[in-house]
Amino acid sequence: MAWTTVLLRVAECGGRVARLAGDLCGHLGLPLLWRAPKTEGCGVRGQVVLPPPGGTFIEGRAAGLAPVTVAYERQGTGEPVVLLHGLGCQRQAWDPVVPLLTGHREIVAMDLPGFGWSPDLDPGVPRDLETAAAWLGSVFTALHVDRPHVVGHSLGGLIALHLGQAGLVRSVTALAPAGFWTAAERRYAYAMLTAAHNGVRLLPDAVLERLPHTAVARAALTGTLYGDPDLCPPEWVAMVLRALRDSVAFKATLRAGRAPNLFTGDIPDIPVTVAWGTRDRLLPPWQADRLRAMIPPARLVPLYGCGHVPMLDAPDLVARVILQATEPPHEAAASNPAPAGTDAP
């Protein structure tokens, strides 16, 4: 495809990066650009607040594995909910949604190893899903969180489903989870992601900082995600590009994702909610049907008008889905939720 060719040219031709940077922005459909929820005084346009760097760190120690350290933020009260981001992202991808949850739930948003502020896994730690469930379970223990609800997006959604199979969580909510693709669909998604990553790695810092200050580049970069580029200030767009560029676990995670049958079997005994944007261009929404065939009781929620990163497109809707999926049993009974398998959010 044309956009892939452009990005690969950027990756291969460092001397022409500046000239091609506008094309690069026009074809990057990246997560992490987000629209903040409306607050008093901001009207219909919303606002974007740049998150502070760093975070708090916790170390998990699973039996037979080297320690795993993750950066995280913890806030709110109520049922514990852990948020897991997607490939090339960081925990700030959830920032539009978190303020809508913390009045009702205790929220733990973490950077997966090798993304955001978390160091990468020790070379001796296998990069497979069963091992990820093991070390995440040890992180939950270190956080003194007993079987939290887990909400994951894309890669994080696939990990959340494995945590459910391992019996380590109270419920699973997966937003456009990875891994339910055909071979052709995986190659397509990998081509998009690899080209974007390779291209942005060749952007000189000066270009990376200047690029988002042009209205055309900002509009091209954000237009595939939602309608108003003004909601993403230049500083935020530059941070997004840096986050993708600096994802040290990006390539290793993609290699691990080539394994066959990334998810098989059912998830018994706990609620499973799967939400998918109807305009997802990276992982098409029909992949949800394959997941549903494996987990028949799963509640499938179409997110109308949303792309691959629904936290950006409809934070209110995503928050509502999460709150319903993580209700304590007595609250769930009182609210009389839709039966399993229905599409009402």
- What is the CATH architecture annotation of the largest domain? 3-Layer(aba) Sandwich
Number of β-strand runs: 8
Radius of gyration, CA atoms, in whole angstroms: 19 Å
Give me the side-by-side strand order of the main sheet: 1-2-4-3-5-6-7-8
Which bin fits the share of residues in helices? 25-40%
Please give the CATH class of the largest domain: Alpha Beta
Molecular shape: globular
**What is the H level of CATH, i.e. the homologous superfamily of the largest domain?**
Alpha/Beta hydrolase fold, catalytic domain
Q: The CATH topology of the largest domain, please? A: Rossmann fold
The total tally of domains equals 2
Largest sheet: 8 strands, mixed
Distance between the termini: 35 Å
Low-confidence stretches: 1-52, 336-342
Judged by helices, strands and strand pairing, the structural class is alpha/beta
User: What is the typical, i.e. mean, pLDDT?
Assistant: 80
Number of helices: 13
Strand content: 5-15%
Along the chain, the helix and strand elements come as HHEEEEHEHEHHHHHEHEHHH
Describe, in short, the structure shown.
This protein has 345 residues and is of the alpha/beta class. Helices cover 38% and strands 13% of the residues.
